[in-house]
Amino acid sequence: MQINGKTAVYLVLGNPIAQVRSPGVYTDWCRERGINAVFVPFQPAVEAGGEVLKALSHVPNLAGLIVTIPFKPLAAGHCRTLTQRARAAGAVNVMRANGDGTWHGDALDGVGCVAALRGHDVAIRGSHVHVTGSGGAGASVAAALAEAGAARLSVEDLVPERAAALAGRLRQTFPGLDVHAGRDGVETASIIVNASPSGMQATDPLPLAPEVFAPGKVFVEMIMQPACTPMMEHAGARGSLVLPGAEVLEGQKHETLRFFGLS
């Protein structure tokens, strides 16, 4: 692939951005198939996120955005159209141009989580799921698991109001779902997801007590780097099936490419 004036540009938006793998993953995929597209890491100042997103709608050769922490909820507000799960999540991690200067958004973090679980034959329908972290990734995961048929869902966050707001949106979108905010019931959850940033740094506290894990439970780590977090080690040591962030990324890769019309 040779970058030229016809190259489709996709930005990977985040702050920080150094830990993100997607620019290389998607650019390599396009190059291997002769697709004239490039994915570029892009780190605006957090406080300027809204201004940057507004300005990007005026860049006609910008084909789309992959949105990472902390811009996912903000980005949803800049989309003219949203999928049902993105509306329930209140966040997006992918945006594509509608062709009229507006954006269409979807929340695919959770789709990757669902794909990773199904890849290990984990039953989601009828399950009890607990999600730690109710930011963009956690909200997307909760919405996708509800969409996939989870019967009971508990969501928690260091900001309780954020978890409560997510629970309210999920209750409205999925009326049959038993959903509540808080940590109560994590001991009985069969699927536990860490969608908080706790674990990205060696000095971070554990997002959950190791005692909640046992054989027969599944732990999904949404963090990509490090490849193995302390929480993953604890969950595995207690006999739980552990799915790393790399499997989630692989699960959402195909959906992301399809969203952008690249596959």
The CATH homologous superfamily of the largest domain corresponds to: NAD(P)-binding Rossmann-like Domain
Largest sheet: 6 strands, mixed
Based on Cα principal axes, name the global outline: globular
- The percent of residues in helical segments reads 25-40%
What percentage of the residues does DSSP assign to strands (E)?
15-25%
Low-confidence stretches: none
**SS element count, helices:** 9
Could you give the distance between the termini?
17 Å
What's the total count of β strands?
12
Mean pLDDT reading = 94
Overall structural class, as computed from helix and strand content, comes to: alpha/beta
Counting copies of identical and different chains, the oligomeric state is single chain
Overall radius of gyration: 18 Å
Strand order of the largest sheet: 2-1-3-5-6-4
CATH topology of the largest domain, what is it called? Answer: Rossmann fold
Query: Can you name the CATH architecture of the largest domain?
Result: 3-Layer(aba) Sandwich
The sequence of SSEs as H and E is EHEHEHEHEEHEHEHEEEHEH
- How many distinct folded domains? 2
At the first level of CATH, the class of the largest domain is Alpha Beta
Protein name: Shikimate dehydrogenase substrate binding N-terminal domain-containing protein
InterPro entries: Aminoacid_DH-like_N_sf, NAD(P)-bd_dom_sf, Shikimate_DH-bd_N, Shikimate_DH_fam
GO molecular function: NADP binding; shikimate 3-dehydrogenase (NADP+) activity
Pathway: Metabolic intermediate biosynthesis; chorismate biosynthesis; chorismate from D-erythrose 4-phosphate and phosphoenolpyruvate: step 4/7
